[in-house]
Amino acid sequence: FFDTIDPTELAKQCEAQGYGLRRTCHTMITHLGPRILKVSGHFGRITLPCGRSILAGCQNSLSLCRAYTNEAVDGIRNTTFELIEEEGKDTEVHGNPQGLMVKQHVDDITIILWSINQAKLGVISTAAAEAWYDAMCRLQLTVSSKTKIIPQGEAALTVQSALKAKGIEVGIADHHVDLG
Question: Given 21, 63, 81, 178, which residue has the most CB atoms within 10 angstroms?
Answer without folding.
Answer: 81
